[in-house]
Amino acid sequence: VVRSSSLLEDSLKHSFAGKYMSVFLADSFASPEERAMAVERCARRIYARVYNPVARTYRERHGLGEDSMAILVMEASGRTRGDRYFYPTTAGVAFSRAFRLWSRRLRSEDGLLRMVFGFGTRGTSRWYARIFSLTDPFARPEGNLPELIAKYSQETFDAVDLKEGCFCSFNINQVPHFLGYHRCAPSLVSFYDVFERELLPYGRFVEGKDLCGKLVFSFRDFPRTHGRFFDGMRALLRSFEELFGMPVDCEFAYEPDEDALDLVQVRSLWSGSYGQRVEIPQGRGRAILRGDRMVSNGAVEEVPYLVFVDPEGYAEAEDKPSVARALAQVRDSLGGAPFVLVGPGRWGSTNPELGVPVRYNEIAGCVCLVELGIPRKGFWPELSYGTHFFGDLEVDGVLYMPVFVGEKGNLFDEEWFRSYPCRLGPMSCIRIYRGKFSAFFSSERNEGVVFQEG
Predict the structure, then answer these.
(1) Rounded Cα–Cα distance for residues 369 and 340 (Å)
(2) Final residue of a domain: which of 269, 303, 331?
(3) Of 32, 71, 380, 408, which one has the greatest count of Cβ atoms within 10 A?
(4) Is residue 417 classed exposed, middle or buried when 0-12, 13-18 and 19+ CB atoms within 10 A define those classes?
């Protein structure tokens, strides 16, 4: 891997996650000269990234000035599968503290993992990943309904093609023979039977019975079969936190068949306003949004704008990436004023079907981000620990709350959003409301409310 290593990267607060570049380079060259030329091309791309608009906007927003870049060349973690493909069995990010929890039974101080099959790149862009609380690794943010587990489990994984010398992605349903490289496959993979609506053990798929459905990386049996891994991660995270004197996150790769853990990187974890007590007031105005899990901590008051992406309109939009670009125009039209941003599914997702695929710089100025979970439309918020999008939210102190529409303890006041005066944005599914909006989020109580005042 040829990756950036700048003076400003991985500081206490500013990680620059996703702002610069890492390039996977397969060792498939005919001569040392060709290999050297390939490394040089990678280095040039990484140096040029200093001037990329995303990186420049990030530095300007935080008053960081110019940056100086160096290059780090390191061996990638993984194994060769067959004679052509290279990837780790699992990879992910571990956090010594979990500042957003989906259940009051879970403890922040126990930490959290975000894991995927294959290279960890699949877990940093708001694709599907398995979230483990180290309080209870069997607990799942999406619950235990088989159809929800199947819907929000990983199917596509990343690898390096050693023959072609390129990074590639596969859906496991198209290459099920890859699972033959992994003795641990039964602990990672389930088969979802669409007719019976149940998750079946991987062995049922191998038996070749008449089944209709799909394979998913559910990690369903992983906590039971690999308890030693979770014990080790708890101890490791505690040790790093004591050593750093603050919360940490670390990137890792793990080979379950060998019980072999590779640590890729350890850095400080910005904790922002967590730990500060936030009281949610009564009678502040009309509550238009309320959530009861995975909320961040903090408050913003009298925000002049609320920008809303209508879930129905977004679902029907033929060009969903254009909605993201239109939001950048809305941001510019507000003249730098702060705003609350509300929309369906996962903000910043690489997959437009999961949510609006905004780049973070396109919504700079947002002070409160709300994700609407509407299962019938295919929209489901996600605990986005480990993603670059999550890192930007934390550093900028942007409040976050998911709202699971129709569930107890959650509120999406559709009547208010239909009737309150607004103007349309560049696309018809975007509405801009002017008023006074205040948000109070308590991670301690796992509760958040957005009020319209006056």
Answers:
(1) 6
(2) 269
(3) 380
(4) middle
For residues 236 and 318, membership in a common domain is answered with: no
pLDDT of residue 273 exceeding 90, the answer is no
295 and 264 within one domain: no
Q: How confident is the model at residue 275 (pLDDT cuts 50, 70, 90)?
A: low
Whether residue 249 lies inside any domain: the answer is yes
Compute the distance between CA of residue 204 and CA of residue 258 in angstroms, rounded to an integer. Answer: 25
Is the pTM higher than 0.85? no
On whether the CB atoms of residues 67 and 7 are closer than 8 A, the answer is yes
More confident residue, 358 or 101: 358
> How far apart (Å, rounded) are the C-alpha atoms in residues 119 and 159?
6
Same domain, 85 and 66: no
- Identify the CATH number of the domain in which residue 212 sits: 3.30.470.20
Closest CA to 68 of 49, 53, 83, 87: 49
374 touches 344 (CB < 8 A):
yes
Q: Determine the Cα–Cα distance for residues 210 and 193; give it in Å rounded to an integer.
A: 10
- Classify residue 181 by burial, with Cβ atoms within 10 Å: 0-12, 13-18, 19+: middle
Q: Are residues 153 and 293 in the same domain?
A: no
Residue 276 lies in a domain: no
Share of the chain above pLDDT 70, in %: 94
Q: What is the pLDDT of residue 235?
A: 96
Residue pair 262/250 in contact (Cβ under 8 Å)? The answer is: no
Which of 75, 101, 128 is the last residue in one of the domains? 75
Domain count along the chain:
3
Q: Quick one: 98 and 2 in the same domain?
A: no
| 206 pLDDT above the threshold of 80 | no
What is the Cα–Cα distance from 146 to 200, expressed in whole angstroms?
9
Distance of CA 210 to the CA centre of its chain: 36
